[in-house]
Design brief:
By secondary structure, the protein is mainly beta. It contains two helices and eleven strands, in the order H-E-E-E-E-E-E-E-E-H-E-E-E. A hairpin with a 5-residue loop joins strand 10 and strand 11. It is globular, with a radius of gyration of 19 Å.
Amino acid sequence: MTIGEVSTMVQVIEFFNFKLVNTPFRAVKMTAFATSQHDVPLSGFKECEGTFPNKLTFYDYSPNPAISGQPVTHKTHATDNVAIKNGSKLRIQAHFNNRLIEDRVTDFCKDWNSGGKCSGATGNVQYEKTEILKDLSKIKDLPRNQSLDFNLRIELHTPQNGILCCIEGPFHLIIPS
């Protein structure tokens, strides 16, 4: 293959939103990344048992696996049948081997919306947030330097504490030594 053919192939691959990664064997590996909410709807997560007025249609995070104490970006798409109002809370529970590692509640409108206010609108919405993950290296009995599967439960609550939507599933995390 000539350099011109490789250049053309790279342009085509980049057009289709593929990422090129060099492996130790100098081969080219192509990994497709989702470009719409229909490609990787919930990345292994599923809706919690029950009936909720709002539906999360897409959830993904990167990097995957995430690294304890480092930034991670969460992306969500949802269909909001009930407006998310100021004062709504996001609750995230993380379990490892059935042991509660974290139970955190934050103000959704302040943390996930630019300007710190929820619009109160309904319909299809998208949110993205980058945060620094809690450093779990202080928990001595958690394994190090390997991808661990945490069970994450993510709930969005109204100011009156009703649950608007809920998903749960595996969150892959590495805790460095």
